[in-house]
Write a structure and sequence with these properties.
Mean pLDDT: 86
Helix content: 40-55%
Number of helices: 16
Distance between the termini: 91 Å
Low-confidence stretches: 1-19, 499-503
Strand order of the largest sheet: 1-2-4-5-3
Structural class: alpha+beta
Length: 503
């Protein structure tokens, strides 16, 4: 039996080529193997040039054909070469690499490289000339602001990093590139400022990305879900932004940014719950105005989440809390409504969500018109038909406006959904149900974390120094320290003593 297995393994070893994985030395073998590895795809290009047996292999849909003819084929077509090194000396392309493994050559072709092959040599040159597919820099669509820069990220990773470097012209700005996805091989960049960002956080984020086992990711929002510490919570644990000025501001505070090639959104972490209600425009106006805006957003948050539930609980169980003059108005308004308050509220909330979703999915001009006209027509018809009361329409509208005030789109979606279970609890148990729901949300938020940091910072655990830039925003001269949330190695933005002497 031992002799049998020994002969079997020896025969397999004899059948296995000695140079498996290396670049073939003949053009025919190179062409055959290259096409086989790419499943004989129709967009494979094979250009034979020169008089010394140079062949260029590439994937036509991934390269810039103008650069191919101008910078590679034209300089080499009438020359003779006796080594790979001589070819490199005649090319003016910046990114050129020499490899001798077929796997690396094929992967490089998928990244927008051309393979320059010379007959008789077991190594090739890789010249990077990717096609530039994408849009130009435009205005921010989802995070608009009146005062401050208006540029937004694009789907080009290099363009996005360039935008950040234009804000932070510091040699300490670090960029680490990683590959994510067994099939997509997406280029992911971790960006942070060395000397400010916590080394522990950088190592933790790097390890999370490296440990991902997945076929591929297509957008930053998918990667954000994979990196989250609690995938079961509805609350976002990392921020998604399209603004380079906002990313730069967070990097200066000691946070980390994650860019994904092909995505216009950037992941920033760690993130606290309060920061989802802060806008970059808050730093561009006087502290009194910024404080008023932030207080307005938090008031809108509570109106959006609890106002409809308060209406349902009051009319179902707690008439005594309603002023007498308002109670008469409510009674007249609901005289024709055949449904209990909980059904009435859920029905109108559902209609509001239908209008909002339809307006978001339709083309811009049609969506705006449909949202306005549809809301007016359906609201008026619902009151006339006796399906709902006038007062509830006002309450639902205020709740919808409150969710729109939130600067973060992902947090705005959370507020929209959280309302529904609170309305059900209010309809079943009144104010007691609302209190149960509030306590559950509070306990749930207390248990969350973002990259190992508390989600409700700076209030839990209490960090009084960070209260200067939380719900309120004091003058910039009072916020000389970076937030404790980021555990920054350099905790001061500037020395307050030297700044005071200078003034």
């Amino acid at each position: 039996m031992k002799v049998f297995f020994k002969k079997l393994f020896s025969s397999r070893n004899q059948l296995k080529p000695k140079n498996q994985g290396l670049i073939p030395e003949t053009r025919e073998k190179m062409s055959t193997e290259f096409k086989q590895r790419l499943q004989n795809s129709a967009d494979i290009l094979e250009n034979e040039i020169g008089i010394s047996g140079i062949t260029i292999f590439s994937i036509g849909t991934l390269i810039d054909k103008t650069m191919l003819h101008r910078d590679i084929i034209y300089p080499l077509k009438d020359l003779s070469f006796d080594s790979i090194q001589n070819i490199m000396e005649h090319l003016s392309i910046g990114e050129i690499e020499k490899v001798n493994q077929m796997e690396k050559a094929v992967q490089a072709a998928l990244d927008g490289n051309v393979i320059i092959f010379l007959e008789g040599y077991s190594s090739v040159l890789l010249a990077k000339i990717p096609s530039r597919v994408g849009r130009s820099i435009s205005f921010a669509q989802n995070e608009s602001q009146v005062i401050g820069p208006q540029m937004a990220f694009t789907e080009s990773l290099m363009t996005n990093i360039t935008l950040v470097r234009n804000y932070i012209k510091d040699s300490s700005l670090c960029i680490e590139n990683l590959q994510v996805g067994a099939r997509t091989n997406k280029l992911v960049s971790i960006v942070y400022i060395n000397g400010i960002a916590s080394e522990q956080m950088v190592n933790s984020l790097r390890k999370r990305i490296q440990n991902l086992k997945i076929d591929g990711i297509l957008d930053s929002s998918m990667l954000e879900q994979l990196l989250a510490e609690n995938s079961l919570t509805i609350f976002p644990q990392m921020a998604l932004t399209e603004r380079p000025d906002r990313v730069s501001d967070w990097l200066l505070k000691g946070k980390l940014a994650v860019f994904v090639d092909g995505s216009s959104l950037t992941i920033v972490c760690p993130q606290s719950f309060l920061e989802f209600f802060q806008s970059m425009e808050d730093s561009n106006v006087n502290w009194q105005i910024a404080t008023f805006w932030r207080l307005l957003r938090f008031i809108a948050l509570f109106l959006s989440v609890f106002f409809t539930a308060l209406y349902v609980a009051s009319l179902t169980y707690h008439y005594e809390v309603i002023p007498q003059t308002l109670l008469f108005t409510l009674s007249e308004s609901r005289a024709k409504v055949p449904f209990p308050p909980i059904v009435e509220a859920l029905l109108l909330e559902f209609i509001m969500e239908l209008l909002r979703e339809a307006g978001a999915r339709l083309p811009t001009k049609v969506g705006q018109t449909m949202g306005i006209v549809g809301g007016i027509v359906i609201g008026t018809a619902a009151v006339d038909a006796g399906f709902t009361s006038n007062i509830l329409i006002i309450i639902i509208s205020l709740g919808a406006l409150g969710s729109f005030v939130t600067p973060s789109y992902t947090m705005g979606n959370v507020i929209r959904i959280v309302r529904f279970p609170l309305i059900v609890l209010a309809g079943c148990w009144g104010f007691y149900g609302m209190m149960y729901g509030f306590c559950f949300l509070l306990l749930h938020l207390l248990r969350q974390s973002s990259l190992g940091t508390p989600y409700l910072a700076p209030f839990y655990p209490p960090r009084f120094a960070d209260w200067k830039d939380s719900i309120i925003r004091l003058p910039l001269s009072f916020t000389n320290k970076r937030p404790d949330l980021t555990m920054a190695e350099d905790e001061y933005k500037y020395d307050p003593i030297k700044a005071k002497k200078h003034t």
